[in-house]
Amino acid sequence: MAVALIGDGPLDGVARLPSIMGPFTVIALVVMIVTMAMCCMWFYRANANLRAAGIPLKHGPTMAWLWAFVPIASLFKPFDVMREIWSQSMELSSGHTPKAPPLMAQWWGAWVVATLSMNLSGSRHVVDTEMDRFVLTPIAALAGLTACVLFRVLVRQVNTAQHERAATSVFA
């Protein structure tokens, strides 16, 4: 068996994986905290911009970001907040309320998959198993990266719509 010649057994290299991944895990955690803070700030500002334009919203600026930290509600309320911010921002720039794009559902689906797989990966029944290393962690990483890319697209759309509205109201 060719794999057995490399180490003591077929999974010898995998046994050393946690020691190699330690620094990357710390870096990933720091990046995640910074990213979460920036997203919360963006939700607050985007919501506050709409309120400053005189648009009544269901969620206030503080709750726009705080929902992400409320258990159970964090699985659906941030999506509602984003849909409200996106729809109202697009209405500001176009004059009509468009339907939320499929991209938004894809973003939220990827975020939920990433969150649930990270939580399962941290479960005491799964930690340091092949299921954790080869299934849950890669799924969490890919879904999280997908969610970040899609979120960036949505943020750019909202920012563009809000900037266009601000520019037209200044020169009107």
UniProtKB/TrEMBL annotation:
Entry keywords, A to Z: Membrane, Transmembrane, Transmembrane helix
* Record bears the keyword Transit peptide: no
TM ranges are 24-44, 64-82, 134-155
Q: Where is the DUF4328 domain?
A: 24-159
> Which Pfam families does the annotation name?
DUF4328 (PF14219)
> InterPro entries of this UniProt entry?
DUF4328 (IPR025565)
The protein's name in its UniProt record: DUF4328 domain-containing protein
What species is given as this protein's source? Novosphingobium pokkalii
Task: Specify the taxonomic lineage.
Answer: Bacteria, Pseudomonadati, Pseudomonadota, Alphaproteobacteria, Sphingomonadales
